[in-house]
Amino acid sequence: MTSDNLSSAAAASGTFLIGGDISVNRLGFGSMQLTGRNGFGPSRDANAARAVLRRAVELGVTLIDTADAYGPGVAEELIGEALAPYKSDVVVATKGGYVRSRRGDWITDGRPEHLREAVEGSLQRLRLEVIDLYQLHRIDGGVPLADQIGALLELRNAGKIRHIGLSEVSVEQIEEASSIAPISTVQNLYNLGQRGAESVVRYAEERGIGFIPWFPLATGGLTKRFASTEEIGSKFGATPSQVALAWLLQHSTTMLPIPGTSSVDHLEENVAASGLRLDSEAISVLDQAA
Question: pLDDT digits over 100-148, tens only?
Fold first, then answer.
């Protein structure tokens, strides 16, 4: 990829307005792989991780997704170190309410006092004065949803966060949360081979809510499962991963894929999918692949 098209690479994916007022290029970057295995522990190469983040921004990526649980704290710190002070068009979306035990287990914690502390910690690590998009990482079944969303609404009103998002939720949960505060994005597991959240994708599209599919490439597993991605890739001069990302971008106008990697080469390959346009025949094959 030459220097002439660096800033426009991710822009080819099109744009989306988060909350109606924050424009991002639709193909973003997920930071979980910059930390240890399963998002737990320190980065295996912090210098390389920071280089990947800087390269992502060079390539026109404007949506960087992270969470305080990645590390924990490691991914946010790397982002702050690599990108602050941020370019004016870069949006960092982080998450809270899902913590790690000493062994790395995932534990929900949606207590309002925890969410307030979590936001303050994220602000410090990310070197931000306000978080443009703060997502409830998981709904805590032991805390009334009204209290969890209410705490985020208070933080928004206090100027700590700008927009509120949810992660791993049903349509019913989005509707309940939306009755308390505006919901700008939803982040659920979704990719070519895992479409259990299809009803959420359609609900989000109908209401202009950004849908952020996590695990969009299934860590490369889609290539082995779907031979069609390789066949279609050969036709379009693209890799199977690029085909899978292009399918996501064309599947819904509010889709915001966030493929993650710790490799600059893989990053450049992923971002290049922004300009891939699949024809109706390829889309039909992939639509029926799951």
Answer: 999 999 999 999 999 999 999 999 999 999 999 999 999 999 999 999 9
Q: With 50 as the cut, is the pLDDT of residue 228 above it?
A: yes
Give the number of domains in the chain. 1
Per the annotation, the verdict on 70 as an active-site residue is yes
- Length of the chain, please? 290
Closest listed residue to residue 130, CA positions, set 205, 254, 19:
19
Domain hosting 242: range is: 3-287
Q: What are phi and psi of 60, to 5 degrees?
A: 95, 10
With tokens 């602050």, the residue in question is 84
Burial (0-12, 13-18, 19+ Cβ within 10 Å), 150 = middle
Secondary structure element (H or E) that encloses residue 134, with its range: strand 131-136
CA distance 79 to 272: 22
Residue 269 in this model has a pLDDT that exceeds 90: yes
Instruction: Choose, from 70, 98, 190, 203, the residue flagged as catalytic.
Output: 70
User: What per-residue confidence (pLDDT) applies to 224?
Assistant: 66
Looking up residue 222, the CATH number of its domain turns out to be 3.20.20.100
Q: Full-prediction pTM beyond 0.90?
A: yes
